[in-house]
Amino acid sequence: MVKTFAEQAREKAAQDAARDAKLGQHLKNIHREREDRPVHIMKKVIEYNSEQFAQLTKNQPTCELMDMNGNKHQEKDPSGPHDPCYGKCRIGFFTPFDFASWRATEPHHNGLSSIMYSFPKLLDANINMYMLPRPFHPRYEPPEHLLNVFKQWENSSIRKRFLDTLSSKWTEEYPAGNINKIICFGLGELYTEVNEEGPAWLLDESPGLDKYLTVLAFEIASFLEHKLGTKIPMIFDDWSYDQQDKSRIESFATQLNTPISFLSNCEALLQVDKNTLVLAPSRARYNIRELIVDITRDEGGPAGFLCETIVPITSTKHEVAWSKGEKDPPTKLLASMAKDYKMDKVCGIDRWGVELYLKRHAIKDPPPEGWGSWTLAKCFK
Length: 381
Known about the structure:
Elements: H1 5-36, H2 41-54, E1 63-66, E2 72-76, E3 89-93, H3 96-104, H4 114-118, H5 120-124, E4 129-133, H6 146-154, H7 157-172, E5 181-185, H8 209-228, E6 234-237, H9 243-256, E7 260-262, E8 276-280, H10 288-295, E9 304-308, H11 316-323, H12 332-340, E10 343-349, E11 354-359
Parallel strand pairs: 5-6, 5-8, 6-7, 8-9
Antiparallel strand pairs: 1-2, 3-4, 9-11, 10-11
Helix pairs in contact: 1-3, 1-11, 6-8
């Protein structure tokens, strides 16, 4: 007997609900396992495995990797089926949802991502890090000079609203005097789209947005410099940068007299601490927010985040729904950050899908005289 459309829909809904319930149970177990681990273990795991990846050579193609409980596993294949990329790799991370999906679909693991199929041994061993070759992106046009980008950004309504709100909030509630560095993850290449009309024209998935996110990062650094009375060093981590991107960013930083550096392969991640403002606005290539909250748990989290809006997830069922198809999914751990670490939403850019979250910390000493009035534009006059 042929089932009606309504019967098929009900059957499909029941199957989906059963699958999600199973995913939720595994996800709950994974969160419980994390809570039972020492708070410092994830940072140790990232540091150890990054060093192991860096030591791989043609003559030494295997290494010892540490799982999320701190146990070491010999001769796991960190490159999976991909060509070896000794010294030229990008490191990726499996999310808690990835591990839940892997466990929930045993033994055949149907319907999972190609990345997960590439590293079954790592997933079975509870190892959350893997390595891939850096992709080659042919560049047909040189990257945009950031000074030209800033001229477009300077007169935009998006910039005015962001800075007006930040200045107002800072004065009334926030001065986050504990920030001593900014670390930027995955801001992206300095690419200009065909017939691009400026920052107000771009959406959160637009390739041309990346260069404005970079200018926004410098804008925030300039704001902090003038509020706190000291230079705020910036660290950039993005495997998509080529030398042209780095040269453009370095040139712009020189004009601003802002100290910057470029790090890769988890070096920047390991620099994050309670005094770090993290910028990871929608472009991160892995689950950076969950990792950062995890590795800074013993310090009460980072000083702040510029990232996608943090969804108030309160259950594993909610987390399962939000995690599907996301590279940097919202999680219960991330959602708890705002409450547990007293980190509140200050301002954002709705069109770009980003929000700035800061902790409330009083400045112990007033900034030096003359640091009160500022704009990034003054640096170019």
